[in-house]
Amino acid sequence: MTHMTPDEMSAKLVFHVKHEAIAELQTFNNILAAQNEVMNLVGPATLPDYWSRHVLDSAQLLDRRPDARTWADLGAGAGFPGIILAILLKHSEGLPPHVYLVESLTKRCRFLQTVVDDLSLPATVINDRAENVKLKVDVVTARAVAPMNKLLGFAEGFIHKGADAWFLKGENVESELVDAGKVWGFDVEQYESLSDPRGRVIHVRRLRRVR
Q: Which residues are involved in binding S-adenosyl-L-methionine (predicted)?
């Protein structure tokens, strides 16, 4: 299998990726690979597909909301999509951006803080559960954190403060949406993922509890 190059990754995006951002994305790749040996941040088999599986998957959110300057990544974990967004936004035009990396596990927060510091990223690491965090941001997002019914609960406070909700989901998203509909009312739009045709980028609007 041929692994995607940084240039091939960039070519799939409408959002322009600067060379300086590519360099920092590569540095993050190096940090992730080194720390993954001791922290199990991502599946080791996914590292050779870093540019497609992780970077493109995360970066495609900026194609959907290129105007958004403040983001909250819930369950930021290994930094996807939050660190990727922070790197790309750091080298973008417009008002100063900021990404909030919300993570409940302290050891992962230490990893995220190291990356933020090493790359001088416009990001804040918050060591807390997402449902406890009260922030006003343009977009709330998450990847591989929880089934949709729980994820909407994590994001509810952000959405009610005006955040647009965009989530990266896998091939089981249809059943997740059905289950979520038993607890929540919402409007949803789905888009095929640029990184995997089985995945979906989910846009949730008008969230409300129905039970």
A: 75, 80, 130-131, 143
Residue type, 142: A
- Between CA 15 and CA 19 the distance in angstroms is 13
Domain assignment present for residue 97? The answer is: yes
Task: Please tell me whether 154 is known to bind a ligand.
Answer: no
Q: Is 80 labelled a binding residue?
A: yes
Ligand-binding site membership of 130 (annotated): yes
Structure tokens at 118: 């090493």
pTM of the model: 0.96
111 has binding-site annotation: no
- Domain at 100, CATH number: 3.40.50.150
Largest CA distance in the chain: 49
Locate tokens 């949803």: which residue? 188
Residue 101, domain member (yes or no) = yes
75 among the known binding-site residues?
Answer: yes
**Which three-class secondary structure state does DSSP give residue 205?**
strand
CB 18 within 8 A of CB 91: yes
